[in-house]
Design brief:
Helices cover about 35% and strands about 10% of the residues. With about 325 residues, it is of the alpha+beta class. The chain has a single domain, classed as paralog of FGE (formylglycine-generating enzyme), CATH 3.90.1580. The strands form 3 sheets. A 4-stranded antiparallel β-sheet has the order 1-4-10-5. Strands 8-7-6-9 form a 4-stranded mixed β-sheet. The longest helix is centred in the N-terminal third of the chain and has 55 residues. The mean pLDDT is about 90.
């Protein structure tokens, strides 16, 4: 009888262990399938981003131009367009050919990068998550912008980075022409070639539920003659250069890259909705702004209006 009881107990334990093993195997199999599915989805997202980037990279033939406020060349009395000393003096710059993205990068683009690298999402704050419209220009600091462009280049097997300030201006001026505003026709036509304040409020309310924080709307209007969208507005754009107010007076002619060191990085484009300020101060093809590249603990407040447009430093068309 005793032997029978022991046999029954051993049999029960064996069955229990077998059931546990079966459950663990099933659980592991389910987890593996989930991981495989997630991996496949991520690979598809990366592929989609790569294909979109290939399509949107615009080749810019290099050349020579006079960089900075060119008002002295075209205005009566040789008056400058703006009163900023740092947009002067006008100076000669010669650039190699390169490519530049037609668009600023969106939150959807940056989220793919974050998923692929394991880095935190940019602007991933519960208090403002409704402002992270997937197709809006992503807000990020300078280091995030640079790292994203370099990562994207690795996916395309192309040397990509932030554009230099000279590259940005040369493209905005249609290869260095005397273009005052980086729009489809070189003019500011409020509500026609960029959003009016009311149009922006209406769009923001539509996609986020309110219009307190304006949400950028990319590609809504005609591009510049070279094919670039939203150079005049829909968020500032980081460039590679450190900022120095007197850099133009000492800039080299060939492929200038800015000062070797500094405390702030240069920004181009604008994020204002004030037509007067765009016409008179911030919207020029040569307008310069600057900001510290990474202010800790103030990401949303300081960086939701600073975005990125990646460049490729290849002297021949990419694809």
């Amino acid at each position: 009888m005793k032997h029978n009881i022991i046999a029954i107990l051993l049999s029960t334990l064996a069955l229990s262990a077998c059931a546990k093993t079966t459950n663990e195997t099933h659980s592991n199999s389910t987890a593996q399938k989930t991981n495989e599915k997630n991996d496949l989805e991520l690979q598809q997202r990366i592929k989609t981003l790569v294909e979109k980037t290939k399509k949107n990279m615009i080749f810019v033939q290099g050349g020579t131009f006079m960089m900075g406020d060119f008002g002295e060349l075209v205005n009566k009395g040789k008056l400058p367009f703006d009163g900023d000393a740092h947009s002067k003096p006008l100076h000669k710059v010669t650039l190699d050919s390169y490519s530049l993205n037609a668009y600023k990068s969106s939150y959807e683009d940056l989220d793919t990068y974050s998923a692929a690298t394991g880095r935190p999402k940019v602007m991933d704050d519960p208090d403002i998550i409704d402002k992270r419209y997937k197709d809006a220009a992503a807000g990020l600091n300078w280091y995030q912008a640079r790292d994203y462009c370099q990562w994207l280049g690795k996916q395309l097997n192309v040397p990509m980075d932030l554009p230099t300030e000279a590259q940005w201006e040369y493209a905005a001026r249609n290869r260095g022409q005397q273009v005052v505003y980086p729009t489809d026709n070189g003019k500011v036509e409020y509500g026609k070639n960029f959003n009016s304040y009311q149009q922006q409020k209406d769009f923001s309310r539509k996609v986020s539920g309110d219009a307190i924080i304006l949400v950028s709307q990319l590609g809504a209007y005609q591009p510049t003659p070279l094919g670039f969208y939203d150079l005049i507005n829909e968020n500032l754009e980081w460039v590679a250069d450190w900022y120095a107010p007197d850099y133009y007076s000492k800039s080299p002619e060939k492929n200038p890259k800015g000062p070797e060191t500094g405390t702030a990085k240069v920004l181009r484009s604008t994020n204002t909705r004030d037509e007067y300020m765009i016409r008179t101060a911030f919207g020029f093809t040569f307008s310069r702004m600057f900001k510290e590249p990474d202010l800790k603990d103030h990401d949303f407040e300081d960086y939701y209006k600073t975005s990125v447009r990646c460049a490729a430093n290849n002297t021949k068309p990419l694809f």
